[in-house]
Model the fold of this input.
Amino acid sequence: MSQTIPEGAYNEFVEALGEDNFSTDPGILETYTYMNGLGQGGLGIQWVHRPVGVALPGSVEEVQAIMKICAKYKLRFKAHSTAWWVQALATKTNCVILDMRRMNNLEINTRDSFAITESYVTAGETQVETMKHGLNPHLVGAGPNASNLASGTSMQGTGGSSIRTSMQERNVLGVEWVTPKGEVLKLGSLNSPNAGWFCGDGPGPSLRGMMRGASGNMGDNGVFTKVALKLYPWHGEPYECDGTPPFFDSNERPNSYLRYVVWDNYDNEADALLRLGEAEIIDYNNRWAAGAFTSAMSITNEEYLEMVEKGEFKEKFGDGYWTFFINAASERALDYKIKAFKKIVSETGGVIYDTTVFGKRSHEIAMQNAVRAVWIGKAAYMPTSANTGTVPFSYETIDQGYKHALPISLDVKEEYASQDKILNEGRDNCYVCIDEDGHYMHIEHACLVEMWEPKAEPTGACIKGAARAIEKGVGFFYCSLPGSPKDLIIYTQYSSQIQKLLNP
Done:
């Protein structure tokens, strides 16, 4: 059913924001109603609704005004930064979308190594500016087009650089947060007069867990307008590249090392990851397999199909491979790290490949992933328009992920691909990265699906994977909680209580 906004609410929105920054025009609303992409395949179009209005706030005061108007007229709201997936849209009726593109200010504190970013500043913009000062932000796996504020406050915050730069939610320092009542809540040291943005846990209250939970509340608990995020060292000159997309010409990186690695079985692979995390020598790592690699290597779907038919990537990377990148402070440090890396890989039965193993494109994919995280999204959508996955998606220990979560995903994916319910682009196409030089990992098993194909049934793969995870006590959907209905209900009940507290 199509809904319209009350006339009084419309007038108040225009008065608060100006005519150019609020719209109920059907053509505008339609552009905020549909999205092919991550989540669309697994969730289906039933999640997406046409909003009743779109607002473009330009300041925290304007966000406050929007929240108060929504509360007054009992309108739902949903804010998004760069709208990376379907939960950025209206997932329920009677909703006003806040497109945060006008709030795009960035401030870099070089002395204390953090950046203060508004909602629409992308990870890529932050990286370009911070590298000028020998610093580097965390880049979430969504890529440089995603908002670091979003991944820190509201969404999943892991990526290939997490081994060195942590999960984004753990980089959050000060936060400026507009609650559904229109109040401004400031977290961390920002809450104390003249203390600044430098500390997330005090002397003000530490509410980061309530703010985002395990994998993010996706904008349900208010609007985040500004956040301070920790930065990390970047050794050498800023990363630059020439040429034209999608395959650039990367400059040689001094004191850097980039390689692919393949292991002959999952047990050896898990042992190697445990040791590499403990060694504290890696700056970027991520796991792909032949399907994703073929998607990244191809420019068109026709080229993709030609590569699949040739099968050379499947021969080498059919059971998964890793990209590892080292960025060292000196030649001596680089030499030590390379020796340690080669020793661990050798002792665990791994094989190291130069990233040019399949030519220039192969190297550029590896380099631009390692520094910019730019190829993951492309691999997630070619050659179909939507990405789903077989559950469990997990934040787990390496052993738990490889011995329990991955086998469930492999079996479910094979079952659904064999029936043409999802694209059969290889049994193993699992994305994995290690967090914080440790034994903790992010693991998800991507599947490509075209929602309009008659046999498409991506939701079933998610449900079946979740049921098997519950049966085996494996955490799923990014929650490392025991996968039992009782425990999940408790978690959900607490989340609901927090939402009711913030928005009665």
Observations:
- The chain has a mean pLDDT of 88.
- Residues 398-418 form the longest helix (21 residues).
- The chain has four domains: 7-99, 106-233, 253-383, 384-430+439-504.
- The radius of gyration is 23 Å.
